[in-house]
Design brief:
The protein is mostly helical and 71 residues long. It has one domain (2-64). The protein is built from 2 helices and no strands. The chain has helices spanning 2-24, 28-64. The protein is elongated, with a radius of gyration of 22 Å. The two termini are 39 Å apart. The relative contact order is 0.05.
């Protein structure tokens, strides 16, 4: 049953994308690249923030004299 629901969900998404592609025409590629670029910007920024936080934790642990083992 779960497989059928997934299939229906993806079918609806595919139909929406097809309709949007037909409406947008030549501008569809620009919107697609904007969407992908924005998503990548957010993901890279989040990864950079997580790395900075990990570096600060590591530096604080070294100054306190208790070095943590890497995961």
């Amino acid at each position: 049953m779960r497989s059928v629901l997934y299939f229906l969900l993806f079918l609806i998404i595919a139909l929406m994308v097809t309709v949007l592609a037909a409406i947008l025409g030549d501008e569809g590629a620009w919107y697609f690249s904007w969407l992908i670029g924005t998503t990548m910007l957010v993901l890279i920024s989040a990864a950079g923030g997580a790395l900075l936080d990990a570096q600060e934790e590591h530096a604080a642990a070294e100054t306190a004299g208790t070095e943590r083992k890497p995961l």
